């Protein structure tokens, strides 16, 4: 991975956004080994966001020619809307996020942000508009402050402080021997999974993107920490348009709309309660997970 970043470093800050995008994506989707497949067309303008909406319009996509993964997917996330995508493993949930980040172009159909086709604008501007809070955050071997400030070139100390507060990690940082100057990562202080995730949330707050992609599979956290982080994420998403990729259904029950994906098709969509009433795939998944967590609780007793 560092071989990839070193030449980008030499090219300077112009690549900062792209590089940040790569780090986020690498962390979220373990894409380290795959090639970036799309290029900006010459003279492509930057995405101009006034109304952060997301639209998938009949999107057909596969990684290999002989296997279609998304079969004509359509959905719309309105300004400030919170949409969650659920579905069995391999249904295509992460693929949707990768397409939104324009790691690939659809075979047919369109993906729009604020009405603009993302294949017609620069990738850097698309990635600058989207904040990702990945499940496993990557921290640099540098100070806590640097790790937060990295969200945006030119972030001031005040920005970093406000972001740490917003991510509810300020009290923790203030207790560190050197505060924001404390070294973290492999060569410094080891942070817990929850602390790392809060640093990632703070970094996203510094970036201040109009669109958030949340990977809510906070599997490495105990349930108390997970609930605290979810509360923080909900607060952070309040004035933004968000797309959550959920593996555990309990984390997204209050989304405006839940899209249930199955084998690359929209099997169901609706609110949590409407989907439970339907007694379909979502209700099955919900009941199964309730039983599983019940069984876990019994073992713990
Ligand atoms: P999970 O809940 O297990 O993370 P998911 O719904 O996010 O699953 P995706 O990661 O979107 O699923 O994958 C959808 C399908 O696309 C899977 O069958 C997967 O094997 C395939 N796939 C994913 N990435 C690639 C790739 N880079 N090349 C080829 N096939 C891929």
Automatic annotation (TrEMBL):
Residues 54-288 form the ABC transporter domain. It is found in: Cell membrane. It comes from the Bacteria. This is ATP-binding cassette domain-containing protein. The chain holds residues 305 to 605 of 605 of the full protein.
């Amino acid at each position: 991975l560092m071989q990839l970043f070193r030449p980008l470093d030499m090219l300077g800050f112009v690549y900062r956004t792209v590089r940040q995008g790569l780090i986020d994506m690498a962390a979220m989707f373990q894409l380290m080994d795959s090639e970036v497949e799309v290029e900006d067309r010459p003279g492509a303008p930057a995405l101009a966001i006034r109304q952060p909406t997301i639209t998938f319009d009949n999107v057909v996509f596969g990684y290999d020619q002989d296997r279609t993964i998304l079969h004509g997917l359509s959905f719309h996330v309105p300004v400030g809307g919170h949409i969650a995508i659920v579905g069995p493993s391999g249904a295509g949930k992460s693929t949707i996020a990768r397409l939104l980040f324009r790691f690939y172009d659809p075979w047919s159909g369109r993906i729009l942000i604020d009405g603009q086709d993302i294949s017609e604008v620069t990738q850097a501007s698309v990635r600058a508009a989207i904040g990702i809070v990945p499940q496993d955050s990557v921290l640099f071997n540098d100070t806590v402050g640097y790790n937060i400030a990295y969200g945006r070139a030119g972030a001031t100390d005040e920005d970093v402080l406000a972001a740490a507060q917003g991510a509810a990690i300020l009290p923790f940082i203030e207790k560190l021997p050197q505060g924001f100057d404390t070294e973290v990562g492999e060569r410094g202080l080891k942070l817990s999974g929850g602390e790392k995730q809060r640093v990632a949330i703070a970094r996203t707050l510094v970036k201040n993107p109009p669109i958030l992609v949340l990977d809510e599979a906070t599997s490495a956290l105990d349930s108390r920490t997970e609930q605290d982080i979810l509360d923080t994420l909900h607060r952070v998403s309040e004035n933004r348009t968000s797309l959550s990729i959920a593996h555990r259904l309990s984390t997204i029950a209050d989304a405006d709309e839940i899209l249930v994906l199955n084998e690359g098709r929209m099997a169901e969509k609706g609110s949590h309660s409407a989907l439970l009433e339907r007694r379909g795939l979502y209700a099955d998944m919900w009941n199964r997970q309730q039983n599983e967590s019940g069984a876990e609780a019994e073992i713990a007793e």
